[in-house]
Amino acid sequence: MPDQVTGLMAAFPQPNVDTDVIMPKRFLITITREGLADGTLADLRFDEDNNKRPEFVLNRSPWTEASILVVGDNFGCGSSREHAVWGLMQLGIKGVIGSGFAGIFYDNARKNGLALPIVSPEVRDELMQVARDPDAGQCIIDITNRRISVGSQRHPFEMDEATRAALLEGRDDTLDTLKLAQSIRAYESNLTQKMRVNVIQ
């Protein structure tokens, strides 16, 4: 993953947006990660006749091109479905800025390369106001330096070192485990030898 996420911000202030809202269960029929963009925030983006809701921010210009969301409190709460993260990314969302995120959602985002900078509620509200301006311009999430820049504004954000490293290096739990493959095989071989000795004795 690049060390920066750059794009247009969209304001999504609704609090307690859970993973059922991000990815409604009726879209969880695929056995792969593909094709989830249509289901992402579907009940907010579309009406019962599948027409776009003109009042929803991601259906309005210029935010149809947004790749960064500024969100309300407790975004990503609810069930642990990883599809919520997959869907957001397939929709073109590369970063979500908030004052805090549900733990499992945050972990799923880290594993899949979705940047979740954490800022104070005051900074979040300030960025929310900027995101409502169609002329605000590009936002830069600088992962290396943990800094958000938009226009003349500069704001530090929180991100634990493990998450930061995972985003910068494209790491996940599986890849981290594979790096230890030689040590794991040595441990297993040693354990097998010990078991053989115990059997002989």
Question: How are the SSEs ordered, and which strands pair?
Answer:
Layout: E1 4-12, H1 19-22, H2 42-45, E2 68-71, H3 83-90, E3 95-97, H4 103-112, H5 121-131, E4 138-142, E5 147-150, E6 153-156, H6 161-169, H7 173-178, H8 181-200
Parallel strand pairs: 1-2, 2-3
Antiparallel strand pairs: 1-4, 4-5, 5-6
Structure characterization notes:
- With 201 residues, the protein is of the alpha/beta class.
- The protein is built from 8 helices and 6 strands.
- It has helices spanning 19-22, 42-45, 83-90, 103-112, 121-131, 161-169, 173-178, 181-200, and strands at residues 4-12, 68-71, 95-97, 138-142, 147-150, 153-156.
- It has a 6-stranded mixed β-sheet, with helices on one face.
- Helix 4 packs parallel to helix 6 (161-169).
- The longest helix is centred in the C-terminal third of the chain and has 20 residues, at 181-200.
- It starts with a strand and ends with a helix.
